[in-house]
Amino acid sequence: MAITVTVVDDHPAILAGIRAWYAEADPPIRVVAAGTSIKCAWTSPGDEADVVILDLNVEENPTVSYRATVRRLVDAGRKVIVYTMQDSEDVALTCLDLGVCGFLTKAEGNDHLVAATVAAARNQPYLPPALAGAMVANRHPQRPALSDRESEVLTLWFQCESKQLVADLLDITTRTVGTHLDRIRLKYANVGRPAATKAALLARAIQDGLVDVDDL
């Protein structure tokens, strides 16, 4: 079954390029809506695309922050991938903290956008090389102390599509997996670095050296 996507970008050439990349993708990715305004991301309930590809510079009203746009989409339950010219790690982490599934710069190219789209549709995190490299180079001093078991659960969760797969690999229950992940998130919140989503938690873990990019 094809993955469906809405693309929001203010450059027609970018829109055309993304359509062409998705047309050649495997598994199939179908663009069901595209435009230069955030309005094209809003459809009738039940008709939403699986993933929204969002440029951060599409608001018609310059007083509206990209944070408000991202938060509105995420709060509506949309799976958002930010695809932007901005390469700021602060902007990337802000978007991840707001709940996006992925953050890519337009310099990353088609392979990474396609891979990130597939990952988002499958509820998996995806971290492109440029952003991963920046995070590895910028270790954070406020690193929570995780137990060996918590680190093991965390790494496997990043590698798997579901908590059930982690539970099967470790011979524990999904409830126990969830308890470990809740405890990890609490530890991050306690040091002032909340990570509510899987993508945000992955970014934190890479920053802190808790997982290695090669492990993923």
Total count of strands: 5
Radius of gyration: 17 Å
What is the CATH topology descriptor of the largest domain? Rossmann fold
Q: What is the SS-derived class? A: alpha/beta
Strand content: 5-15%
Helix content: 40-55%
- Please identify which CATH superfamily of the largest domain we are dealing with: Response regulator
CATH architecture classification of the largest domain: 3-Layer(aba) Sandwich
Mean pLDDT: 84
Shape, please? globular
> SSE string, helix = H, strand = E?
EHEEHEHEHHHHHH
Strand order, biggest sheet?
A: 2-1-3-4-5
Distance between the termini: 25 Å
Q: What is the count of helical runs? A: 9
Q: List unreliable stretches of 5+ residues.
A: none
Report on the structure:
This protein is of the alpha/beta class and 216 residues long. The chain folds into two domains: 3-126, Response regulator (Rossmann fold); 140-215, Arc Repressor Mutant, subunit A, CATH 1.10.10.10. The chain is 46% helix and 12% strand. It has helices at residues 12-23, 66-75, 89-98, 110-121, 129-137, 148-159, 163-170, 174-190, 198-207, and strands at 3-8, 29-35, 51-54, 80-84, 102-105. It has a five-stranded parallel β-sheet, with helices on both faces. Strand 3, helix 2 and strand 4 (80-84) form a beta-alpha-beta unit. The protein is globular, with a radius of gyration of 17 Å. The two termini are 25 Å apart.
